[in-house]
Design a protein that fits this description.
Blueprint: E1 10-14, E2 19-21, E3 24-26, E4 29-32, E5 35-37, E6 40-42, E7 49-52, E8 57-59, E9 62-69, E10 72-74, E11 77-85, E12 90-92, E13 95-102, E14 107-109, E15 112-114, E16 122-125
Parallel strand pairs: 1-4, 2-5, 3-6, 4-7, 5-8, 6-9, 7-9, 8-10, 9-11, 10-12, 11-13, 12-14, 13-15, 13-16
């Protein structure tokens, strides 16, 4: 439905039990299962993917083309292409996106803002697999 293209490889990992304080910038793909206090921003020169795992807690803003969330973010999320909210996703902040896929159980405490003002954003309701 969204014309998904090949995702960039995950080259960076912040594993469970790791805590980082400070802003991060990454290229291609990144997976976070630990805690980050600071903003996470993808390099603008290439396609990007960030996966926020179930055990992850991010206290800061997240910027990437494709964002997959199954953990907790206290901050704003900016998905320049696709935002996927998995069942255990929790966001305390505003969310901007081009396309949105949201599973039952995901929670957003903030505003949903499509990236293209005036156009109806693509919205896909995920099937309940439970």
């Amino acid at each position: 439905m969204f014309g998904k293209k090949k995702q960039p490889p995950v080259r960076s990992l912040i594993d469970k039990g790791t805590q980082i304080q400070g802003n991060l910038k990454f290229t291609d793909g990144m997976r976070v299962d630990g805690n980050v206090v600071g903003n996470i921003r993808a390099n603008e020169d290439s396609d990007s993917l960030i996966v926020i795992g179930e055990s992850a807690v991010i206290e800061g803003d997240v910027y990437s083309d494709h964002v997959i969330i199954n953990g907790k973010i206290i901050g704003h999320v900016h998905a320049f292409e696709l935002l996927e909210l998995q069942p255990k996703a929790q966001i305390e902040g505003d969310v901007s996106y081009k396309a949105l896929e949201m599973h039952q159980g995901a929670v957003i405490s903030g505003q949903l803002k499509p990236m293209i003002p005036g156009e109806k954003p693509a919205l896909k309701l995920a099937a309940n697999n439970g």
